């Protein structure tokens, strides 16, 4: 698993500054070292640093101090410009945040990498699977790599093949690189251009006025331009300050097709919140409102393809594939599709599905859920499904992402960009979209009375406002509870039916950002093993949102209490019996139990958030985690 951020800039602004700021906006993707290379006069300068971007800023500052001293010396020696005037207007460079895969976290392994002759510089995101073979090949040519990374192998290979024409060199050399990656390169001898290519990893071009950007995510350059273009896999992008050209496999040049990114630059700022995660938790009402509002039109659109009446009528099975939080959204979607539409549903983590030789046919609808639209396992699962003739519908938050290109139909959640690594508003938006799909399938298959469909749709429409109100009411008491329990060593989460995805997601949130071990179980399973973990020091969080199984859950809570463990509960309003067994209860508004998933998750997200803050942790960029996992 890995994730890096890459950025390139060519234009008129101070490139080192633009790159540095761009990397800061890519920070959310997770990283453990970072670096920049840029032209200063005729020379390429490079800084790299282990740790956070503050270390890179310091390294940049030191470098600048040294180069101003060198310039002053050259002036004293009678060369007033230091030889740099002719090229002062050149502003070009590349930057990288590295999430280590090949080689330890060291400055030497940090990008950018350069070939042995100092001619070709690159930053790379992804993995080159045959790097050992290429490394051996270079060794036979007498070229030793300076680092342990697969990226340097690419730099060395490009340097070896370099003809003086970087675009041509990349075009002729890229067939040697196996794997999923995106790279941006520049050459010391061609100080006016960047060359980039992607092969299964994200890369987006930002088109400006007399300047161009390229990066792993739009977020990196959104304050400068919203005009974007996404190169196809294998297309070579050549960026000059006044022009962008794409070269196809035949070497034919064509202009990129440019679209406008809908995300507002100000929406990716923190708006006064202390962290992105907190801001995004507060944006969940809006995310649900916007998603529900846009869903019908999108579903009507998909009715021309994957969600046509004929296909829905012929549906034998739905398989949901996803990873992490998106998988938990899929579990809630399964319950809705089965309860409301009576269609059998399987939910599988994409990394298992892709290797388990699944049974698929054209009457199986595969629903892939991925907020980023770039998760490698989910993309592979989608490819596998299509290869077996199953239509694929993707639910994603990312316009232009790979998943949107690989699917037969796309539904966009309307959560806006999510910067916190821990998914929050994208989760509720995914669940809301899945429920809208389930209602459509139920309607077409006539499995729910129309009054019921109408009531559920109305309830869904009002959920955004209820989420807003809930946050306002529970934030403070939940924060107090989280602070009180911040020293606990382990938390067990329990839920039944619709409470289970909530328990699983709540447990994932807490472990991701607070690093406190958690486990989550279907409550009925507790006595089959996890009960052994209980002690007076174990807080157990129970999600009580299903009236049918409430007596069962109360019995489970009694078992927990009998072991003197502390019981915390999230319950639907009116379930007052819960008070008898729980030390603390947070009530959420009562509606349909499926819809309560969107409410019950909120206190658990806030609990995870405040507990991590009480432990002084960086919630937006938790250790070892990446926002988008573009390799297996
Ligand atoms: O972009 P995706 O939805 O495909 O990402 C899937 C998981 O990597 C993601 O949900 C991950 O579990 C998050 N860290 C959850 O907070």
Describe the structure.
The chain has 2 domains: 5-268, Aminohydrolase, N-terminal nucleophile (Ntn) domain (Glutamine Phosphoribosylpyrophosphate, subunit 1, domain 1, 4-Layer Sandwich); 276-614, Rossmann fold (3-Layer(aba) Sandwich), CATH 3.40.50.10490. Helix content is 39%, strand content 22%. The chain contains 18 helices and 25 strands. The strands form 4 sheets. It has an 8-stranded antiparallel β-sheet with strand order 3-2-4-1-10-9-11-15, with helices on one face. Strands 5-6-7-8-12-13-14 form a 7-stranded antiparallel β-sheet. Strands 17-16-18-19-20 form a 5-stranded parallel β-sheet, sandwiched between helices. The longest helix has 35 residues, at 450-484. Mean pLDDT is 92; it is low at 79-88. 5-amino-5-deoxy-1-O-phosphono-D-mannitol binds at residues 323-326, 370-372, 375, 378, 421-423, 512, 625, 628-629.
What is the topology, as strand order, of the major beta sheet?
Answer: 3-2-4-1-10-9-11-15
Uncertain residue segments = 79-88
Largest sheet: 8 strands, antiparallel
The backbone outline, from C-alpha atoms, is globular
The level of helicity is 25-40%
SSE class: alpha/beta
CATH H-level superfamily of the largest domain: Glucose-6-phosphate isomerase like protein, domain 1
Total tally of structural domains: 2
Query: Do you know the CATH topology of the largest domain?
Result: Rossmann fold
CATH top level class name of the largest domain: Alpha Beta
CATH architecture classification name of the largest domain: 3-Layer(aba) Sandwich
**Individual helix count:** 18
Rg estimate, integer Å: 26 Å
**Which molecules are bound besides the chains?**
5-amino-5-deoxy-1-O-phosphono-D-mannitol
Mean pLDDT: 92
Total number of beta strands: 25
């Amino acid at each position: 698993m890995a994730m890096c951020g890459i950025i390139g800039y060519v234009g008129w602004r101070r490139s080192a500054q633009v790159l540095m700021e761009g990397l800061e906006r890519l920070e959310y993707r997770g990283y453990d070292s970072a670096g920049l290379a840029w032209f200063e006069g005729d020379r390429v300068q490079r800084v790299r640093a282990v740790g956070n971007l503050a270390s890179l800023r310091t390294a940049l500052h030191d470098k600048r101090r040294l180069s101003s001293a060198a310039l002053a010396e050259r002036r004293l020696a009678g060369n007033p410009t230091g030889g740099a005037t002719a090229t002062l207007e050149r502003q070009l460079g590349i930057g990288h945040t590295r999430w280590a895969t090949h080689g330890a976290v060291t400055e030497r392994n940090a990008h950018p990498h350069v070939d042995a002759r100092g001619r070709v510089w690159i930053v790379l995101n992804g993995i080159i699977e045959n790097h050992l073979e290429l490394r051996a090949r270079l060794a036979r040519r007498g070229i030793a790599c300076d680092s342990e990374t697969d990226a340097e192998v690419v730099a060395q290979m490009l340097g070896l093949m370099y003809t003086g024409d970087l675009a041509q060199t990349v075009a002729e050399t890229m067939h040697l690189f196996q794997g999923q990656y995106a790279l941006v390169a520049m050459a010391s001898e061609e100080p006016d251009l960047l060359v980039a290519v992607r092969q299964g990893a994200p890369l987006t071009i930002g088109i400006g006025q007399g300047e161009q950007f390229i990066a792993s995510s739009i977020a990196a350059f959104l304050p400068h331009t919203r005009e974007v273009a996404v190169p196809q896999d294998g297309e070579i992008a050549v960026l000059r300050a006044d022009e962008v050209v794409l070269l196809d496999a035949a070497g034919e040049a064509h202009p990129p097709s440019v679209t406008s990114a809908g995300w507002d630059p100000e929406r990716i700022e923190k708006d006064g919140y202390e962290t992105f995660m907190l801001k995004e938790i507060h944006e969940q009402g809006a995310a649900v409102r916007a998603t529900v509002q846009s869903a019908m039109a999108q579903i009507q659109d998909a009715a021309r393809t994957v969600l046509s009446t004929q296909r829905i009528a012929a549906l034998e099975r739905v398989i949901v594939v996803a990873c992490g939080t998106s998988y938990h959204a899929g579990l809630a979607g399964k319950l809705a599709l089965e309860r409301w539409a009576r269609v059998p549903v399987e939910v599988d983590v994409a990394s298992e599905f892709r290797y388990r030789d699944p049974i698929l046919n054209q009457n199986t609808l595969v629903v892939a859920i991925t907020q980023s639209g770039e998760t490698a396992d989910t993309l592979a699962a989608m490819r596998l499904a299509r290869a077996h003739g199953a239509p694929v519908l993707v639910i994603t938050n990312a316009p232009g992402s790979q998943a949107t290109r690989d699917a037969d139909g796309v539904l966009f959640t309307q959560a806006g960009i999510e910067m916190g690594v821990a998914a929050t508003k994208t989760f509720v938006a995914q669940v809301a979209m899945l429920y809208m799909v389930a209602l459509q399938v139920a309607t077409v298959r006539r499995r729910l009375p129309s009054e019921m469909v109408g009531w559920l749709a109305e309830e869904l429409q009002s959920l955004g406002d209820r989420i807003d109100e809930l946050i306002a009411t529970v934030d403070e008491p939940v924060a107090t509870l989280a602070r009180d329990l911040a020293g606990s060593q382990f938390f067990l989460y329990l839920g039944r039916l619709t409470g289970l995805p909530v328990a699983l997601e709540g447990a994932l949130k807490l472990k991701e950002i607070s690093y406190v071990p958690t486990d989550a179980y279907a409550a009925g399973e507790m006595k089959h093993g996890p009960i052994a973990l209980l002690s007076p020091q174990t807080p157990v969080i129970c999600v009580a949102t299903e009236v049918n199984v409430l007596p069962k859950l109360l019995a489970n809570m009694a078992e927990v209490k009998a072991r003197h463990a502390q019981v915390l509960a999230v319950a639907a309003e009116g379930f007052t019996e819960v008070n008898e067994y729980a030390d603390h209860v947070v009530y959420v508004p009562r509606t349909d139990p499926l819809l309560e998933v969107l409410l019950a998750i909120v206190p658990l997200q806030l609990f995870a958030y405040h507990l991590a803050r009480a432990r002084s942790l960086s919630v937006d960029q938790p250790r070892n985690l990446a926002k988008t996992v573009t390799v297996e």
